[in-house]
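Technical appendix A lists one of the benchmark inputs used to test multi-chain prediction within the project. The record comprises two sequence entries:
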Amino acid sequence: MHALLIAPFADYEFMRRALAGIFALAIGAAPIGVFLMLRRMSLIGDAMAHAILPGAAVGFLFAGLSLFALAGGGLIAGFVIALGAGVLARLTQIKEDASLAAFFLISLALGVTIVSLRGSNVDLLHFLFGSVLAVDDPTLILIVSIASLSLIVLALIWRPLVLECVDPGFLRSVSGAGGPAHIVFLALVVMNLVGGFLALGTLLAVGLMMLPAVTARFWARDISSMIGIACVCAAGSGYAGLLASYHANLPSGPAVILVAGILYAVSVIVGPVGGLIWLRSPRRHLEA
Amino acid sequence: MTAQLRFHDLTLGYDRHPAVHHLNGVVEAGALLAVVGPNGAGKSTLFKGIVGAIKPFAGQIELGGLGVHDIAYLPQVAEIDRTFPISVYDMVSMGLWRRTGLFGGLGIGRRDDIEHALAEVGLTGFEQRPIGTLSGGQMQRMLFARLLLQDARVIVLDEPFNAIDVSTVAALLDLVRRWHGEQRTVVAALHDIDLVKANFPQTLLLAREPVAWGDTAQVLSAANLNRARQMCEAFDETAEACAAEVA
C-alpha cells in the first residue's frame, strides 16, 4: 500500500514538486472554474488559453525558454484580450463571448505568424504542452504565488462577483463595482491559465479549471460547497493522476485530466444533484 | 413641498428614436405616483433614465441630491439567473449593499432586519430555499423584501404586479402604501387603471409625450386615455431630426 500510494512521492523529488504544483493549481483554478461555469462562460477558459499561447510563443522567440518571458508573454496577451473583450462588451452591443472569439482568433493567427517568421518551433511546442514532472523551483514559486493571489482576490471581489452572476441589473442599480470586479475576475482567469500552462500545457490547464467545477455541480446546491468540492476534486485528480502516470508510465498531464474526467463521468451518473440515476429512478413525491 | 425628481425637457430613447419625448415636470418628495400608458409609451425607458441605466438624448434629470445608486429600482424583467445556486436569505440580504458595501459583515442587528423583511412579505421559512424553487409570486415577494432592506428615499417599480395573484398584489400594495406613509417617494408603472385609481393619488399618463400629469381622477379621464391610445407606437425610420432640439 505504501509502495503504491506514497513511495513515488517519498522517493522522488520531481514527484513531490509535481504534486505541490498541481495542488496549488487545483486550489487556485477550481474556484475560478466554478464561477466561469455559473456565468455560462465554461468555454471562455478554452478561448483564453488559445489567446495566451501566442503571447508565450512570442516571449519564447525573444528570450528563449525563460520562465519570465513565457509567463510574461502569456500574461500580457491574456490581459490585453480579456480587457479588450470585457471593455468592448460594455461599450458596444457585442456580447462578451463574441468579442472574445474575435480577439482570440486574431491573437492565435498573429502568434502563429510571428512564430513561423522566426523559424523552428519544435522546442516551443514541447514546452507549450508542458510537463508537470519538469516543474522547477521558480515555476513552482510562480504557480503557488498565483494560487495565493487568486484566493485572496477572489475573497475580496466575492460579493460583487456573485451578485453580478445572479442579478447584474440589481448590482448596477446599487453599485458601480460590477464592471471592475468582472475585469479583475478575467485577470484571475488569465493568471491561473498561465500558471496552468507552465505545468500542464494550455489545453490541460483549462481541464483542471473546468472539469472539477462541472463535477461539483452534481454534488452541491450552494456555491461555497461547490467550490470546496471542486478544489478537493481537482487536488484528488492531481494526486491520482500522478500516481497513475508513475505506475503505468502514462504522460502525466493527460493522466491528471483523465482522472478528473473519470470523476466527472461518475458524477454525471450518481451525483445527488441532478445525476442521471436519480432522474431514472425518481423517489415517491412528498405530501406537501 | 420639495422636488425629489425634476425632469428638464427630457428626451430618452434608443438608436436616436425618442421613447420619451420632451418631458418636463416634478415629482415631489413623498409623492405616490403611478405612470400609466400603453405598451411602448416609454414607461420603462423613463425609469431606466431615472436610475441612470441609459443616458438622455437631451435634457436632464435632477435627483434632488441623491445619487443614482441611492434609488431602489425594481425592473420589469429582472435579469435574475434563477438557476444560480443562492438562497432566498442571501439574495434578500443583498438589499443591505449600500450599508455593508463590498466587505462589511451583516452583524446581529442586520440579521434581524433580514428576518423582519422576509416576514413582512410572508416568506418566513423560505430562508434556505434556492431562488430557483420560487414561484413567480414568491419571487416578487422576495424582491420586495430586498427593496424593504434597501431603505431608499426613492423607490421605482416597473410593472411590479404583472402576472401576480390578487392576494400577493394586496400584500405588496400594503408595502407600497406604507412606504408612502413613511414619506418615501414611490413611482410605479402600472396597467390596472382601477388599482391606480384606488391607490395612487397622482398619475403621469405617458404616450411617448406626456399626455397628462396630476391628480389621478382628472388624468385618467376617458378622453385622456383615448388620446394616449391613439399616439402611435412605431418608430418612424424616415423621421426628420427633431426640430424642438434645434430650437
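The beta strands of chain B are 3-14, 17-28, 32-36, 58-62, 71-74, 154-158, 185-189, 202-207, 209-215. Chain B has a mean pLDDT of 89. Comparable benchmark entries are summarised in Table A2.
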